[in-house]
Design a protein that fits this description.
The chain is built from 14 helices and 9 strands. The protein is of the alpha/beta class and 303 residues long. The chain folds into 2 domains: 5-161, Rossmann fold; 168-287, N-(1-d-carboxylethyl)-l-norvaline Dehydrogenase, domain 2 (Orthogonal Bundle), CATH 1.10.1040.10.
Length: 303
């Protein structure tokens, strides 16, 4: 796979980060999105804007999808004019967070020429080459795609031949994040309602080993932020719903997950649908009549 050429289908924040990382690594990239204006950053960095899925896939050595949900993945991969109709011999790398059953359906739709590779990490980590990819699919295909993994330069974890294994692990990881953040938000709102100053709470949480390392980068946003990140409350609720469905298929009911999902859904209905998942704290503050504490002042030049 010399002269890496990649079609990136789906240019939301994560898809754009993947395209930019590939461009930075010297790959030739074509991009397509159902709303073409969302391709602007990738096209501005040198990607070719494709007019259709088929146009993007034509001549690509690898096709990479990064889409919002199961319905979008099914439409783009297996729908009319989708990837399955024009893929040829190129492998598909599916990075979306969807149900494991959907992942398996898409692998079957392209004749098994697919590696599931959902991402653990923010778009900034992807663009910096520091994200973790959960790979699952045929071992020989994973090896064939080594130039792609080298271009992405992330941390790769192979989960086995079953493509659904990667999305299973991704849902487990996202559930740990969503539930931990919901609990952190309840703790912060409770401290605020009890009259604790934000400086004391901030310092306490910074030194508290009970706050998972993956949550530390959202502590400030929960405390004082405007929730302008990339992972929306709607997507958070969707991912928790998917793990509930996965558990139900195995005969499990997850009572904590139901409450966590409801927290993100509630935040979305109250106006934070497009805000980062840290906005799960805002309905709590609103219910108690609490204002968001002021953000700390920016450091003076030279500090």
């Amino acid at each position: 796979m010399t002269g890496l050429s990649v079609a990136v289908l789906g240019t939301g924040k994560m898809g754009t980060a993947l395209a930019l990382r590939l461009l930075d690594s010297g790959a030739t990239v074509a991009v397509w999105n159902r709303t073409p204006e969302r391709t602007a950053d990738a096209v501005g960095a040198g990607a070719r804007l494709a007019s259709s899925v088929a146009d993007a896939v034509a001549g690509a050595g690898v096709v990479l999808t990064s889409l919002a949900d199961d319905a979008a993945v099914r439409a783009v991969v297996a729908g009319e004019g989708g990837v399955a109709s024009c893929l040829g011999d190129a492998p598909l790398v599916e990075t979306s967070t969807v149900a494991p059953a959907t992942t398996r359906e898409m692998a079957a739709a392209v004749g098994g020429r697919m590696v599931a590779a959902p991402v653990l990490g923010a778009p900034g980590a992807v663009q910096a080459g520091k994200a973790r990819f959960l790979q699952a699919g045929p071992g020989e295909l994973v090896e064939e795609l080594e130039p792609l993994w080298e271009a992405l330069a992330g941390w790769m974890t192979y989960a086995g031949e079953d493509p659904g294994a990667a999305t299973t692990l991704k849902l487990v990881a996202n559930y740990l994040l969503m539930s931990g953040l919901a609990a952190l938000s309840e703790a912060v709102a409770t401290a605020q309602s009890a009259g604790m100053g934000v400086e004391i709470v901030r310092g306490f949480l910074a030194d508290l080993p009970l706050v998972a390392p993956a949550l530390q980068n959202r502590v400030e946003d929960v405390l004082t932020g405007e929730h302008a990140g990339w992972f929306s409350t709607l997507l958070g609720a969707k991912d928790v719903r998917l793990i509930e469905q996965l558990a139900a298929a195995g005969g499990l009911t997850l009572p904590i997950a139901a409450a966590v999902r409801a927290s993100y859904e509630h935040a979305a209905t109250l106006g934070w649908a497009d805000a980062d998942i840290g906005a799960v704290v805002e309905p709590l503050r609103r219910s108690a009549g609490l204002a968001r504490p002021p953000a700390p002042p920016a450091p003076a030049p030279g500090e």
